[in-house]
Amino acid sequence: MEIERAEVIVTSPGRNFVTLRLTTTDQVQGVGDATLNGRELAVASYLQDHLCPLLIGRDPQRIEDIWQYLYRGGYWRRGPVTMAAIAAVDVALWDIKAKLAGMPLYQLLGGAVRTGLLAYGHASGADLPRLFESIEKHLELGYRAIRIQTGVPGLGPLYGVAAGDSEGTRYDYEPARRTMVPTEEAWDTRAYLRHVPSVFEAVRNKFGPELPLLHDVHHRLTPIQAARLGKSLEPFDLFWMEDCTPAENQEALRLVRRHTTTPLAIGEVFNTVWDYQTLITEQLIDYVRSAVTHTGGISPMRRLLDFAGLYQIKSGMHGPTDVSPVGMAAAMHLGLAIHNFGIQEYMRHSKATMDVFRTSYTFAEGLLHPGDQVGLGVEIDETAAAAYPYAGAYLPVNRLLDGTVHDW
To answer: Residue 299 and residue 154: Cα distance in Å, rounded?
Structure first.
């Protein structure tokens, strides 16, 4: 048995997705997610022009060998485009292997070690009344953990704070715009640091001490500012504070760690275990935030999480709507099979997206489960996908009040 066809499918049912579909000579198919938000066509080209020709004729069951061949053989290692492309291949091969084995993928990874995956949703609002309304809606949907994002008085729209709840006013539940040039938002760190503790105080007063609360800083703070925020949020018992400072400078987290006991989650923009080496060995974080889609696939993500587990660090895999249902399913299968699972981010995709991607995973009583369909449990409807051609879209750019481009 060999890989006979490798197809790259780009579709935009609510937002842009890149999917790799591999077909064997026995007509067994596997799919992998290669979506890279705002750089989708770069990954599509990487796959179509560079990786797909290398796959034809190869044994699809040699997953590890193919992964090493694509990672080491290309000379230019790492980086989001390369690792998203390799991830798509890796996940598609695991999908094929599980189908050949006649079992859901998580069984092939060692079997379930829990009944389901605790998931958190994104509640947000420009002010407290709208934030409370969003929290209540998420609780009604069954979420048992909630990420809290809010507007900052004196500033306009902010990334992470939804502009509205109807599908017509949001880009598949994220504040991106279908334009070829990103929108620009204003940011004031001091106003944010003053405001956020009062938000969590209000949320705790209304919703009580038991509800797990999370917060995403979007890399906007320096290490000392992040330390200050973590300290000020300690009374409100956060599940985690995410991406509190740009972590490419891994040593910067030493300062944050010294000053706060608020748990830290880092890594959604990381691509390999090397990005985490210092953070894990020095126990500077509590949760690994990478996505299967952006970290080379299931094979390296399993290795990364096993490494993290040696230091009692848990998973918190990235799961926004710019990870397709294929990537979400891969995270669920892996999360169900690892011992050091922490929590799974879960933003619900639009109806149009779910019409293109036929899934077997479920969400009930706050828990995700990948389902028991053989393989990954996701198939792409190519006819439905063709009805949604690619349309340029970007997340916003952040600027300080004086116009300086800022992290987010």
So the answer is: 46
Catalytic residue among 122, 138, 218, 294: 218
Distance (Å, rounded) from C-alpha 261 to C-alpha 265? 12
Residues 9 and 19: beta-carbon distance below 8 Å: yes
**Torsions phi, psi for 374 (to 5 deg):** -65, 150
Q: What does the domain layout of the chain look like in residue ranges? A: 3-104, 108-374
What is the enclosing helix (H) or strand (E) of 357?
A: strand 357-359
Catalytic residue among 106, 143, 159, 173: 159
Q: Which two tokens stand for residue 193?
A: 């640091």
Residue 173 bears catalytic tag = no
The strand ranges marked E within 45-145 are 117-125
Please give the CATH superfamily to which domain 108-374 belongs: Enolase-like C-terminal domain (3.20.20.120)
Per the DSSP assignment, residues forming a β-bridge with 118 are 367
Structure confidence by residue, pLDDT tens digits, 205-237: 999 999 999 999 999 999 999 999 999 999 999
Which positions ≥6 away from 184 have C-beta within 8 Å?
396, 397, 398, 399
Q: 3-state class of 121 per DSSP?
A: strand
Known active-site residue 159: yes
Domain 3-104 has CATH 3.30.390.10: yes
Ranges of H-type helices in 234-322 = 252-259, 277-281, 298-309
Integer Cα distance of 161 and 96 in angstroms:
39
Which residues neighbour 73 within 8 Å (Cβ) at sequence distance 6 or greater?
A: none
**127/180 Cα distance (integer angstroms):** 30
What is the Cα–Cα distance from 147 to 243, expressed in whole angstroms? Answer: 13
State the alpha helices, DSSP H only, in 234-387. Answer: 252-259, 277-281, 298-309, 325-337, 351-356, 382-386
Amino acid at position 86, single letter: I
- At residue 170, the pLDDT reads 45
Which has the closest alpha carbon to 8: 39, 63, 45, 57? Answer: 45
Please check whether residue 172 is in contact with residue 351, taking contact to mean a CB–CB distance below 8 angstroms.
no
Q: DSSP character for 341?
A: B
How far apart CA 300 and CA 288 sit, in angstroms, is: 13
Per-residue model confidence as pLDDT tens digits over 65-110: 999 999 999 888 999 999 999 999 999 999 999 999 999 999 999 9
